[in-house]
Amino acid sequence: AQSVTQLGSHVSVSEGALVLLRCNYSSSVPPYLFWYVQYPNQGLQLLLKYTSAATLVKGINGFEAEFKKSETSFHLTKPSAHMSDAAEYFCAVSDRYTDKLIFGTGTRLQVFP
Amino acid sequence: EAQVTQNPRYLITVTGKKLTVTCSQNMNHEYMSWYRQDPGLGLRQIYYSMNVEVTDKGDVPEGYKVSRKEKRNFPLILESPSPNQTSLYFCASSNPTRTSGANVLTFGAGSRLTVL
């Protein structure tokens, strides 16, 4: 069965600092991986996705993630945090045959001035 | 504007009183799904539908029903709500493409349900 594990339910950074949100996946077949962001009182929206092309994926708002098969990881990074990045971030995995998305438990990012 | 619309956005009800949360999408998407979001548990799939008249259980279907009579609508029905169904509910839709294989979901804004 496929799954994702997000390490750290809460992450706090200062404005301008590096953002690193961790995601590890488990999949018996080549996975598709996603990061979604949820701003307060809103639905989720796609940040970026990995579909087996380039291992370094760039998304919206300056975020990027790197697929590392040897580490079964898909960590999300942003070089310099902005106050507007405060939100909850979800990692998700799907396989190529069922289209089902399985979400992690989420990481809430706080950004301090 | 391409969107998924859920109603109501907020609802407080009592145990046993049947309710329906509507979901409608205007993107002609084939795939629709309901999730519930609970603190510390992330999003868990309740039901999904691959197309009209095709529905299937997700990971937490107990206590819920769905129907897909039209492509654009996918209502979630709670026949006899209980307090453990107090949650934030999201409807989502997509057109999975076999070439990319990546099912990118478009989410509604969410429906916060409280069952007393």
Summed up, what is this model?
The complex is a heterodimer of chains A (113) and B (116). Chain A is mainly β and 113 residues long.
What does this structure look like?
The complex is a heterodimer of chains A (113) and B (116). Chain A has 113 residues and is mainly β. Chain A is 0% helix and 56% strand. Chain A has no helices and 11 strands. Chain A has strands at 3-7, 10-14, 19-26, 32-38, 44-50, 56-58, 64-68, 73-78, 87-94, 101-103, 107-112. In chain A, strands 2, 4, 5, 9, 10 and 11 form a 6-stranded mixed sheet that branches. In chain A, strands 1-3-8-7-6 form a 5-stranded antiparallel sheet, with no helix packed on it. In chain A, strand 7 and strand 8 (73-78) form a beta hairpin. Chain B is mostly beta strands. Helix content of chain B is 0%, strand content 49%. Chain B has strands at residues 4-7, 10-13, 19-25, 31-38, 42-51, 54-57, 65-66, 76-78, 87-94, 106-107, 111-115. In chain B, the strands form 2 sheets. In chain B, strands 2, 4, 5, 6, 9, 10 and 11 form a 7-stranded mixed sheet that branches. In chain B, strands 1-3-8-7 form a 4-stranded antiparallel sheet, with no helix packed on it. In chain B, strand 4 (31-38) and strand 5 (42-51) form a beta hairpin. The radius of gyration of chain B is 14 Å and the shape is globular. The mean pLDDT of chain B is 92. At the A-B interface, strand 5 and strand 10 of A face strand 5 and strand 9 of B.
